[in-house]
Amino acid sequence: MQTFSCLSTQTLAWTHRGQDPIHLNPRLLNSTFMLRSSPLVSAVSTTPPPPSTPLINTHHSLPPDQVELFKSLESWASQCVLPFLKPVEQCWQPQNFLPDPTLPFDEFTDQVRALQDRTAGLPDDYLVVLVGDMITEEALPTYQSFLNRLDGVRDETGASLGPWAQWIRAWTAEENRHGDLLRTYLYLSGRVDMEMIERTIQYLIGAGMDFGTEHNPYLGFVYTSFQERATFISHGNTARLSKESGDPVLARICGTVASDEKRHENAYAKIVEKLLEVDPTVAMLAIEDMMRKRIRMPAHMMFDGRDPHLFDHFSVVAQRLGVYTANDYADILEFFIERWKLEKLEGLTGEGKGAQDFVCGLAPRIRKLQELADEKARKKASSGVEFSWIFGKDGVNQD
Ligand SMILES: [Fe+2]
Ligand SMILES: [Fe+2]
């Protein structure tokens, strides 16, 4: 699981059938998380930035009938979702891509040197994006907690035998390899400031995240479908760029992680597809709801103790390198409209049809925002931003 939305810096004001979908949570205003616009947040801050659009996420929005319906899908989940997981013995492990410490010392250090030779040519801005991706993967505890808050899905005992609980644990275990591998590879490269990266991870896990999914598995699995596809795209692009920069091993690493994300995307998309089949209106409304809230990628609370706008700065670099862009966000939406056959969905109530119209007409509006994001990236590209992760070097302008 992973990454960022370049739309995070855009203000989207679509209202939710007359309701404002974004509410300020007054409790947050009194917490250590001060608003970004607050004068108390200086250029050098010791407090992490707050969520840009705090959401009230304390209620359980799925009615009991729908929770029961969800629970009734357990045998289907066993047959159709759990097979997307791979047995441990068939899974790759980080060590498969790393210098082998069981070799004689000289051979091991030769492998480390070869890694450092390969990574020496990686541009600084590429490293910024790769580090941001890795940090996002490393905040995995936040994502497992998120899944365990979903009604009808959560792992009630911590070792429950139900298929949803099994999925949560095994998905987490598969994802855990992503951050481990990227982190170790970056550490061995000697190109990045591991202490600042580790602080950022600690801040990010400590900050948590409100995904806006209200304990609701319909909303939750729409979110994870989008998010896994976003990470599939992002890791796929970092694979392409590392190949172009002369590190085929790193390309294989990013490509392998991307293929995991794709498999997970397929599982989550299949769940939403099933919900659209058995409960089309509620599922369609869930898709609309998440689109109106906007899918916020999990690392938007990242902070390194120095840059209160770290995520925005990171997103600009990702946008400029084409690793993840506002256009990708629109592509993902169009992909799922097609994948879930939303335009042809039948059996909807009037409200459901309204949601269908909104979602199916949204991509062009998002693409317009692409132009704004491009403009912002161009402006930022010439301003120069120092990233602590690469020892304070400018991660926008390449060396
Ligand atoms: Fe993932
Ligand atoms: Fe991942």
From TrEMBL:
Name the UniProt key words of this record, in alphabetical order. Answer: Chloroplast, Fatty acid biosynthesis, Fatty acid metabolism, Iron, Lipid biosynthesis, Lipid metabolism, Metal-binding, Oxidoreductase, Plastid, Transit peptide
Task: State how the cofactor is bound.
Answer: Binds 2 iron ions per subunit.
Which co-factor is required?
Answer: Fe(2+); Fe cation
The record's comment on protein family reads: Belongs to the fatty acid desaturase type 2 family.
Ligand binding (Fe cation 2):
175, 228, 261, 264
Q: Which GO terms describe its biological process?
A: fatty acid biosynthetic process
Check the record and name the InterPro entries matching this protein: Fatty_acid_desaturase-2, Ferritin-like_SF, RNR-like
Give the highest taxon in the source lineage.
Eukaryota
| Predominant location | plastid
Q: Where does Fe cation 1 bind?
A: 137, 175, 178, 261
Subcellular locations according to the entry: Plastid, Chloroplast
Report a single Gene Ontology molecular function. Answer: metal ion binding
Q: What is the name attached to this protein's record?
A: Acyl-[acyl-carrier-protein] desaturase
Q: Which GO terms describe its cellular component?
A: chloroplast stroma
